[in-house]
Amino acid sequence: MTSHAALIDRYGRVATDLRVSVTDRCNLRCTYCMPPEGLPWLPGPDLLTDDEVGRLVRISVAHLGVREVRFTGGEPLLRPGLARIVAQAAALKPRPRLSLTTNAIGLHRLAGPLAEAGLDRVNVSLDTLDADRFVQLAHRRRLDDTLAGIAAAEAAGLKPVKINTVLMRGVNDDEAVPLLAFALEHGYELRFIEQMPLDAGHVWRREHMVTAAEILGRLTQAYELLPDPAERGGAPAETWLVAGHVMPDGTPARVGVIASVSQPFCRACDRTRLTADGAVRSCLFSREETSLRAALRAGASDDDLARLWREAMWGKPAGHGIDDPTFLQPSRPMSAIGG
Ligand code: SAM
Ligand code: SF4
Predict the structure, then answer these.
(1) N or C: which end of the chain has fewer CB atoms below 10 A?
(2) Element housing 59 (H / E)
(3) 24 lines ligand 1 (CB under 6 A)
(4) How close is the Cα of 321 to the center of ligand 2, in Å?
(5) Ligand 2 pocket test target in 26, 29, 102, 107 with most atoms within 8 Å of CB
(6) Atom of ligand 2 minimally distant from the CA of 33
């Protein structure tokens, strides 16, 4: 018998949004994510193959009620079979919404093929518009490649292009307004993300974090922000309308802030995560995960895998607990979990 029960947890939340990490490798070394020397990458045989990823995505959609699939990493554009994985997901019924979180290096070349494969949208991470600062932040001189990738995504119709920015005190916190000006000029949707304790070096300190309140304080010095009448639903970003600005399609321009730390949205969280080596994580901050890979390779049926996935999600913690004195950072950094 085929089972069709949703990914529900014991607090009643239902996960419909799947983040799939397709690689733990990256061509940048953003300081809040990866050490300059990189990390010990997952050995090739541990990675799910394209078909294994395709099968698990199919199970999540057909058996578990997932409606939105986002491919991430590491840097997902480094995965050779990405377009094939996207095409497999786009062929599913019901067809999930498909997006990609990327640093956009290589998107210049890949935006067209990915759009053709069925990708709907991209979220590009961009923390600075200054080439030297980009090197300081990401340890590689690649700002031009990222900007070319963003433009290519737009040209390929992967819209609306969303930009994600992490501000760091004394590093790029003076760029809140220039980044919003850049986004408004091009018709991109900008969202600031509070820095979370997910760096490989475990050096995050709450008192260093640029808070959502500070970000808004900076933005409102240059822009009038109005309450957004749109329903927020499970969306992590709180959004504002930017008075006097519109998107290329005539809809009001918005800016968002994801206050994961100062105003956690765990109660509305609708995410489930799959790592590149086939483990389900119920939360970015989980210290436990459930590997599906061994069962998958031992011949488990779709129903067996769906059951294991459901069991993993049932134990999803109520919240990330960053404010709890006993909080421990997950052992895997963001790049290995899939941001
Ligand atoms: N390489 C891709 C990219 O950078 O978009 C996808 C993976 S990256 C881990 C996904 C997102 O996580 C990026 O937007 C990045 O800025 C964010 N991120 C990484 N480490 C973070 C941290 N410690 N706190 C907040 N966001 C973080
Ligand atoms: Fe790479 Fe993305 Fe992490 Fe930066 S945030 S090091 S681009 S995985």
Answers:
(1) N
(2) helix 50-64
(3) no
(4) 24
(5) 26
(6) 3
Q: Which domain holds residue 273?
A: 3-337
pLDDT one-digit tens code per residue, 172-197: 999 999 999 999 999 999 999 999 88
129: CATH = 3.20.20.70
Phi, psi of 58 (to 5 degrees): -60, -45
Q: How many domains does the chain have?
A: 1
Which string of DSSP letters, residue by residue, matches 203-269?
A: ---GGGBPPHHHHHHHHHHHS-EEE--S--TT-S-EEEEEEEEE-TTSSEEEEEEE-TTTS--GGG-
Kindly list the strands in the beta sheet with 97-102, ordered across the sheet, starting from the edge strand earlier in the chain.
225-227, 238-246, 252-258, 189-193, 162-166, 121-125, 97-102, 68-72, 17-21, 271-274, 279-281, 290-291
Cα gap 168→208, rounded to integer Å: 8
Of all atoms in ligand 1, which is nearest to the CA of residue 197?
23
pLDDT per position as a tens digit, 121-142? 999 999 999 999 999 999 999 9
Whether the predicted model's global pTM rises above the 0.85 cut: yes
Q: Quote the CA–CA distance of 22 and 51 in Å, as a whole number.
A: 12
